[in-house]
Design goal:
- This protein is mostly helical and 110 residues long.
- The longest helix is centred in the middle third of the chain and has 27 residues.
- The protein is built from 5 helices and no strands.
- Helix 3 runs antiparallel to helix 4 and helix 4 packs across helix 5.
């Protein structure tokens, strides 16, 4: 079995551990690898993630309005369901505001 090592910044960090403990030479090697094989760009741009966050925020507002209306008419169980949905949408919006890496981590439960 032949093992092929891929020259990436992620693989380098996996091999060398916490960057706070690196020597100046190790840090220089990492920077050179970043110049040779830069990490791929995020899947979504900052602007796209802000639009995603706005959509989640609008969803949260709509669900919260519906929850308030249901609670006012005595439908407490349905109101609770929509309240939880609004909370979930707000959490998605907060993660999306931070950009794709944070949003991806949120979606994957990291």
């Amino acid at each position: 079995m032949t093992r092929t090592l891929t020259l990436t910044t992620d693989a380098f960090r996996d091999q060398h551990g916490d960057p706070a403990t690196w020597s100046p030479a190790t840090l220089d090697s990492y920077l050179v690898i970043g110049d040779i094989a830069p990490p791929p760009p995020p899947l979504y741009t900052h602007r796209e993630m802000q639009a995603e966050a706005d959509a989640w925020q609008a969803s949260a507002a709509g669900q919260q309005r519906l929850a308030d209306e249901l609670a006012a008419t005595g439908h407490s169980i349905a109101a609770g369901i929509h309240r939880r949905g609004a909370q979930d949408a707000r959490q998605h919006a907060e993660a999306a505001r931070l950009g794709w890496p944070a949003y991806e981590a949120f979606l994957n439960g990291w």
